[in-house]
Automatic annotation (TrEMBL):
GO molecular function: chloride channel activity; protein dimerization activity
Protein's name in the database: Anoctamin
Presence of the UniProt keyword Cytoplasm in the record: no
Transmembrane parts of this sequence: 303-329, 380-400, 464-491, 511-533, 556-577, 675-698, 732-752, 830-851
Xref: InterPro entries: Anoct_dimer, Anoctamin, Anoctamin_TM
Taxonomic source organism: Salarias fasciatus
Compartments, record wording: Cell membrane; Membrane
One GO cellular component, as annotated: plasma membrane
Family, as annotated: Belongs to the anoctamin family.
Domain Anoctamin transmembrane, chain residue ranges per copy: 292-874
Gene Ontology biological-process annotations: calcium activated phosphatidylcholine scrambling; calcium activated phosphatidylserine scrambling
Principal location listed in the UniProt entry: membrane
UniProtKB keywords: Cell membrane, Glycoprotein, Membrane, Transmembrane, Transmembrane helix
């Protein structure tokens, strides 16, 4: 067979031999396919008994999903290109690729796969190899992969929904039932080829769904060898993709997303998904999760189920957060704090000390606008909202567990255990050491010794710690930037107008400019470090060589989230808990490196800066992600179609899909990571930004449809994968929820002014009013500002201000004794009352919230009672149908022929078989 011939290869394989080969692959044998056991590429050329070649041209049917004979369904597509015009130096590489490709295809034939190749309509160098899995191969690998298939209709009546009385309204928020019909529910069991008669096989062509067929096909492609030299084997389609032997490998979409296929056998599921799920007009509808799972597999389905459930729960949090924001906005003008700051007779006469060595004196009423903005977020409603969010996150996780348990049962992933998951091909290829399996007691191959594994893990941990230190170094650099820019702006302002004590608009310019530009620079640094670390994290995980894909994803998830956590949240933690906490007082400021005066908070407090930082990072991240997820794939596809345009040519289904973008090797990893980072912003710092759930809700409403549009229209069909739950993200979410209680309590205690106000209100503001004392917030501003004598300045630069002003005393934010007191500039009793109140608040709130979380977790069961009943019923039927009946057959055979016991056993078996509804 010449290089450009079009061929169809038919496999001649014994079913029992095929089954043994598949079992050997699962048991990780050293030599899966000996070299002499496979046909070579020379035998294919010469026309052996294993394979024969004939022409297979494209029949002109653009919607066809079958081989050229119109009978055998296409389960996978392999794409390669030949370059006849390559120079002499590249010919050796091309010949090596050709030998590997032909050997690989011969291996697939030996495993029972049928292949058919057809040339490209748009590019004569490109060839598409169509993969078909016959019935025997499907049955064999369905048993190997423990795929669960129906054995009987679900005879348990489902409980009616509590919202059925509102169905006349809710039906408009669900996909059209005439287009997407609800599928029948079955009890299922792991497929066994020897008990095929007990499974509901009505139509062999429809018994295995297309997602199941694609999953089994990719399993075979990942384990078929392409080169064996002695004891060294090389196998797997991924290695062939990386080396350029094949240009692409993917399952087919069933039709165009915007045009219904006219083929009778086409289910048009992609068309339905686009119209009822991905189209912008369906943004208000619930997701067709069963159809998503059927078309893309359980792993995609569980992601969109989680994202949809998270978005629905966010509506409650967003409503409460918006109410708190409106409350703060309405009360900003009536707040005693705002009135005293903005009052010319109070705030206008309070001269504040300079905040840096080159800064000027300023009056408190210059921060009037900032104080009003601060009151929007720093009020008693925020405290209530923070406690509410701590309870909300617990309810979210507990209700998600219940919903996830329902999906596990409905989608047959309840018994999807890790030990059933096959090892990664990359892991199998590196196995050269032996060790005794502690479970089975059988010796098995492993890629490295225990010592080697420890070395690899240590190198990985060291690399992650290095990058985390790099992030912390960037935070220090941005802090230095804040100091330098603020000092520079303030010095410039002082040169222009040094004698003016009320530079209201001018003073705020350097302060706000420093905060906003530092936040933007921090966001840019975050995105750059993300792109760099992403490659490092993948390299480290590949170096560690996890055994299964689940192990690989969990290891990468932990590395990426740990880095992203520090990268995204470190600047927020710095502003919330470190900035402005160790500044000393004007006469003795705390200095970094003995030179730079430590950074102080904005005159309105650090809380408003934390809100600004959160808004910029959340907004910038959402915009950047949408550019990457929507704009870039769309532009790439547009360019690809333009470069491969063909006038008036009918393009087959497989070539239309080739023009789409390839799916990521990490699948949904980045989608989960994006949402979990957002979940952290919503929960960890919600006490400073009640609008975070609102922004997250708006983003998620777009995110669901954008992701749906992306994978339905812009990407090739994703290889379906099995998944029981959201994996390592579940414990990460639980950890974030626990940490959120601490961070919000500390933000309220140490970042906001709520605790000092409460202490003043209940302890220091009692005024007699008749026979009953009354509490008021009047005078709080004066009590929260300490007095400093300007002659006590130690800095020469600050003391120079005395030569051009008549200021003798100034005020600063702290609780210290005034000058002339025998404990001059030491902390007063108010300070210790506030510290005690802050610690008591943190302890009390944490214990109350954690106790509430514990009670809710205990009261709400993880698995609904109805699901438990169905699981027990399914196990019982599996035991009766697949095991006890066979046991009775064996017992009958052991009885003497014609005996009464044998006759009764036959009658009993006949009655039971009649009772079973097949």
């Amino acid at each position: 067979m010449s290089e450009n011939n079009i061929f169809e290869m038919e496999s001649v394989c014994d079913p029992e031999e095929l089954r043994e080969d598949a079992q050997l692959s699962m048991m990780e044998e050293e030599a899966v396919y000996p070299e002499e056991f496979l046909p070579t590429y020379h035998s294919i050329k010469e026309g052996s008994t294993v394979a024969k070649a004939r022409q297979a041209e494209f029949n002109g049917n653009a919607d066809s999903l079958f081989f050229n004979d119109g009978v055998r369904r296409i389960d996978f597509i392999l794409v390669y290109e030949d370059d006849d015009k390559a120079d002499f130096e590249k010919r050796h590489t091309i010949q090596r690729r050709k030998r590997r490709r032909e050997y690989f295809e011969a291996s697939l034939m030996k495993m029972g796969i049928e292949l058919e190749a057809t040339p490209s309509v748009l590019d004569e160098r490109r060839t598409f190899v169509k993969v078909h899995m016959p019935w025997e191969v499907l049955c064999t690998y369905a048993e190997v992969l423990h795929i669960k298939l129906p054995i009987q209709l679900n005879d348990l009546s489902s409980r009616p929904s509590a919202w059925r009385c509102l169905s006349f309204l809710t039906k408009y928020f669900y996909p059209d039932e005439e287009l997407i019909r609800k599928e029948a529910e079955f009890f299922t069991a792991p497929f066994e080829k020897s008990r095929l008669d007990y499974f509901l096989v009505k139509d062999r062509d429809l018994f295995f769904t297309q997602a199941m067929r694609s999953r089994m096909a990719f399993y075979i492609l990942s384990r078929a060898p392409y080169e064996i030299r002695g004891s060294t084997k090389k196998f797997g389609i991924n290695k062939l993709l990386d080396s350029g032997v094949y240009k692409a490998v993917y399952p087919l979409h069933d039709c165009r997303f915007n045009v219904r296929s006219e083929e009778e056998s086409c289910p048009n599921e992609r068309f339905l998904l686009y119209n009822e799920w991905a189209h912008p007009k369906s943004f208000y509808k619930m997701q067709p999760l069963d159809l998503i799972r059927k078309y893309y597999g359980e792993k995609i389905g569980i992601y969109f189920a989680w994202l949809g459930f998270y978005t629905i729960m966010l509506t409650v949090a967003a409503a409460v957060g918006l109410a708190c924001f409106i409350y703060g906005y309405k009360t900003q003008e009536t707040s005693t704090w705002t009135k005293e700051v903005c009052d010319p007779e109070i705030g206008g006469k309070l001269v504040m000390c300079p905040q840096c060595d080159s800064c000027m004196y300023w009056t408190l009423n210059s921060t009037c606008d900032t104080s009003k903005k601060l009151c929007i977020f720093d009020n008693f409603g925020t405290l209530v909202f923070a406690v509410f969010m701590s309870v909300w996150v617990t309810l979210f996780l507990e209700f998600w567990k219940r919903y996830q348990a329902e999906l596990e049962y409905q989608w047959d992933t309840v018994e999807f255990l890790e030990q059933e998951e096959p090892p990664r091909p990359e892991y199998e290829a590196k196995c050269k050491y032996e060790r005794k399996n502690p479970v089975t007691g059988v010796k098995e191959k492993v890629p490295f010794t225990s010592c080697g594994r420890c070395v690899r893990v240590s190198i990985g941990m060291g690399t992650v710690l290095f990058w985390i230190m790099l992030i912390l170094a960037s935070i220090v650099a941005i802090t230095v930037y804040r100091l330098v820019v603020f000092i520079t702006f303030s010095a410039k302002l002082r040169e222009n107008d040094l004698k003016n004590l009320e530079p209201i608009k001018e003073y705020m310019t350097p302060q706000m400019a420093t905060s906003v530009t530092a936040s933007i620079i921090s966001f840019v640094v975050i995105m750059i470090l993300n792109m760099l670390y992403e490659r490092v994290a993948i390299w480290i995980t590949d170096f560690e060589l996890p055994r299964t894909k689940t192990d690989y994803e969990n290891s990468l998830t932990l590395k990426m989230f740990l880095f992203q956590f520090v990268n995204y949240y470190s600047s927020c933690f710095y502003i919330a808990f470190f900035k402005g906490k160790t500044v000393g007082y004007p006469g003795k400021p705390f200095r970094l490196l003995g030179e730079y005066r430590n950074e102080e908070c904005d005159p309105g407090g650090c809380l408003i800066e934390l809100t600004t930082q959160l808004a910029i990072i959340m907004g910038g991240k959402a915009i950047w992600n949408n550019i990457q997820e929507v704009l870039l794939p769309w532009v790439k596809n547009l360019i690809f179609r333009y470069c491969n345009r063909a006038a008036e040519k009918v393009t087959p289904r497989w070539e239309q899909d080739y023009q789409l973008q390839p799916s990521s090797k990490l699948g949904l990893f980045y989608e989960y990571l994006e949402m979990v980072i957002q979940f952290g912003f919503v929960t960890l710092f919600v006490a400073s930004f009640p609008l975070a759930p609102v922004l997250a809700l708006i983003n998620n409403l777009f995110e669901i449809r954008v992701d749906a549009w992306k994978i339905t229209t812009q990407f090739r069909r994703i290889v379906p994968e099995k998944a029981q739950d959201i994996g390592a993200w579940q414990p990460i979410l639980q950890g974030v929820a626990i940490l959120a209680v601490v961070t919000n309590a500390m933000i309220i205690a140490f970042t906001s002014d709520m605790i000092p106000r409460l202490v003043y209100y209940w302890s220091f503001s009692v005024f007699p009013y008749g026979d009953h004392p009354t509490h008021t917030m009047e005078g709080y501003i004066n009590s929260s500002l300490s007095v400093f004598n300007t002659r006590d300045f130690n800095s020469t630069r600050s003391a120079n201000l005395l030569k051009v002003s008549n200021v003798t005393t100034c005020r600063y934010r702290d609780f210290r004794f005034p000058p002339g007191h025998h404990r001059e500039y030491e902390h007063n009793v108010y300070y210790w009352h506030v510290i005690a109140a802050k610690m008591a608040f943190i302890i009390v709130v944490e214990h109350i919230v954690y106790f509430t979380k514990f009670v809710l977790s205990y009261v709400i069961p993880d698995v609904p009672y109805a699901v438990k009943e169905q699981i027990k019923r399914e196990k019982y039927l599996t035991q009766v149908i697949l095991h006890e009946t066979n046991l009775k057959l064996v017992t009958r055979r052991l009885k003497p022929a014609g005996s009464d016991d044998a006759s009764r056993a036959d009658a009993q078996i006949s009655r039971e078989e009649m009772d079973l509804d097949f």
